[in-house]
Design brief:
The structure holds two protein chains of two kinds. Chain A is α/β, with parallel strands linked by helices. Chain A has six helices and nine strands. Chain A has helices at 3-8, 21-37, 56-65, 76-79, 83-92, 168-177; strands at 71-74, 95-96, 105-108, 132-136, 146-149, 157-159, 184-189, 193-197, 202-205. In chain A, helix 2 crosses helix 3 (56-65). The longest helix of chain A has 17 residues, at 21-37. Chain A starts with a helix and ends with a strand. By secondary structure, chain B is of the alpha/beta class. Chain B has ten helices and twelve strands. In chain B, the strands form three sheets. A seven-stranded mixed sheet of chain B has the order 1-9-8-5-4-2-3. In chain B, strands 7-6-10 form a three-stranded antiparallel sheet. The chains are: A alpha/beta, B alpha/beta. At the A-B interface, helix 2 of A face helix 3, strand 1 and helix 6 of B. The structure holds zinc ion. Zinc ion binds next to strand 12 and helix 9 of chain B.
Chain lengths: 207, 312
């Protein structure tokens, strides 16, 4: 059986992905671009059929940005069973990274336990050689209120994502202080979409 | 060298169009898209990317064309300008190119466009949130004329060591009594990177500051992409005793009477008659349609002014 047959089989770990890749990738990229250009503003993103426990929205980001030139680290919850890694490799050709610090991307579903400092912030001369963390969270409205300021934001922007570490503000302050180095975040939430937190913005507790 | 216009006249363009949406293959678009995201996250920093050959000479803005090709969707409305005009050979060709390879709707209206590709000007009409303006950049490195070595300029950006740039501007003052740079006037983006808005006239520098639109810059030959997110501080470099000032024109547009707009001098007849008119042709046409007139409106309407060509 060839790989393409496996991919088209319903219910197979290798099914799902884009149906019409060119326009779907463009639309998803458009959402990601706007998410990073307008930090904290939720952008609509279509969820892909992806193997458990990979959230469909992370599947969409994977199919949009990953290929054989990229590497992605999967957090512990996504590593179990190997299906997620297999699916991402099959769909995109990406390399699965063993170490957080070596990965160009990280897919995270256990956001409460993530440490931003574990990932590569890039190099002072090449700050683009940094990691992009894609974190699926349970809610965009039920977490602590955070106030964002910086490029892309007119005045300030208030967000309240749940599922981030208890000391997220402090972790972010350290990340922002590295600028122009630092990691960038995409937060996804099923039923909502994607929001971007680029390293360039300042985040403080609101109220 | 053959131009896109030659290409568009050949049946070969149909093969191109069938080959890939917006000409570039998906692998290349993904690579450019990743670079665009880094550029947005680090405003003003030049992200290296694997620039591709495009079916047009480098002078035609292949960097901007690659950026546009990577962001464009079927429901986008594209405007292309060269200087401020929609009707020059360069602008017309790039517009036709994207009509053929992406089937997108095109427009000359700044208001209607979702993506605006430009070689020099930022339209006079204020851009809106949700719009993206893509600049075709010939020389992305603002320090290049001061330091030809890439390793050195990269180190200067890394260390935020921009003294040399101030020395250059100060030499201008010593020689001319003022900062003589009128195009590609360096700016500092979000308080960090010094960036070259080249080859935009410094008249447009204030439009970059806190603009609601996303600004993307693509340099094809030097393979760099950089960006200014919406609502980002953009400051033109200057000195306390020689503050940055835009070039003012001492007259309004001869066709629409607009003041405080960028004017081009155009020849009106064989006898050497000339007048100053809006470089932004769309803005000028809109104003004339609204009934604004200039001192040459009548003469122009009797057929003295034809389409203009860019003079770069
Ligand atoms: Zn005018």
């Amino acid at each position: 059986m060839s790989l393409s047959n496996v991919g088209s089989e319903q219910g197979s770990p290798l099914s799902g992905g884009f149906v019409d890749a060119v326009p779907e990738a463009q639309r998803a990229f458009h959402a990601l671009m706007n998410a990073l250009a307008q930090p904290g503003r939720c952008q609509p993103l279509k969820s892909l059929l992806a193997p458990e426990p990979l959230p469909g929205l992370l599947g969409t980001i994977g199919c949009t940005l990953l290929d054989h030139q990229t590497s992605v680290f999967l957090d512990e919850a996504l590593q179990g069973g190997g299906q997620v890694g297999e699916w991402l490799i099959f769909q995109t050709g990406t390399v699965i990274a063993d170490q957080r610090k070596d990965a160009g991307f990280a897919f995270i579903v256990d956001g409460e336990r993530m440490r931003l400092a574990d990932y590569g912030p890039g190099d002072q001369a090449y700050p683009d050689r940094s990691a992009t963390l894609c974190v699926n969270v349970p809610s965009f409205a039920e977490g602590p209120r955070l106030s964002l300021e910086g490029p892309g934001i007119k005045g300030k922007m208030i967000i309240a994502p749940a599922g981030l570490p208890a000391d997220f503000i402090d972790q972010w302050a350290d990340n922002h202080a590295l600028f122009p180095r630092g990691v960038d975040l995409f937060l996804t939430c099923e039923g909502e979409g994607v929001m971007g937190l680029p390293r360039s913005i300042n985040i403080v507790q609101e109220g | 060298m053959s131009t896109i216009l030659d290409l568009l006249d050949r049946p070969a363009i149909d093969d191109l169009a069938r080959y890939n949406f917006a000409y570039l293959d998906e692998q290349t678009k993904r690579m450019i898209r990743r670079a665009i995201l880094k550029a947005i996250a680090v405003p003003g920093y030049q992200v290296p990317f694997g620039s591709r050959e495009m079916p047009m000479p480098y002078g035609w803005g292949t960097g901007g064309v690659q950026v546009t090709a990577s962001i464009l969707g079927a429901d986008d409305v594209l405007k292309v300008i060269d200087q401020g005009a929609d009707d020059t050979t360069n602008a017309v060709s790039i517009r036709k190119f994207f009509q053929h390879v992406a089937g997108v709707k095109t427009t000359t209206s700044t208001e209607e466009a979702t993506v605006i590709q430009t070689r020099h000007r930022i339209p006079e009409r204020a851009l809106k949130a949700g719009q993206t303006i893509v600049f075709q950049v010939p020389i992305p490195e603002p320090l290049r004329f001061l330091e030809p070595r890439e390793t050195e300029t990269r180190a200067m950006h890394a260390l935020e060591e921009y003294g040399l740039m101030h020395v250059k501007l100060y030499e201008d003052i010593a020689r001319h009594g003022h900062i003589a740079t009128t195009y590609a006037y360096p700016v500092k983006v979000a308080g960090r990177y010094v960036m070259d808005p080249s080859p935009t006239p410094k008249f447009d520098n204030p439009k970059m500051h806190m603009n609601p639109a996303l600004q993307l810059y693509g340099a094809g030959r030097e393979a760099r992409i950089y960006a200014i997110p919406p609502y980002t501080e953009v400051v033109s470099l200057d000195f306390e005793d020689h503050p940055f000032a835009v070039n003012r024109f001492d007259r309004p547009c001869a066709l629409c009477g607009a003041e405080n707009v960028y004017l081009d001098e155009v020849v009106t007849d064989d006898a050497g008659g000339r007048m100053f008119v809006c470089s932004d042709t769309d803005n000028c046409e809109d104003r004339r349609a609204e009934g604004y007139v200039g001192e040459q409106t009548e003469a122009a309407e009797s057929g003295l002014s034809g389409p203009r060509e860019a003079r770069s």
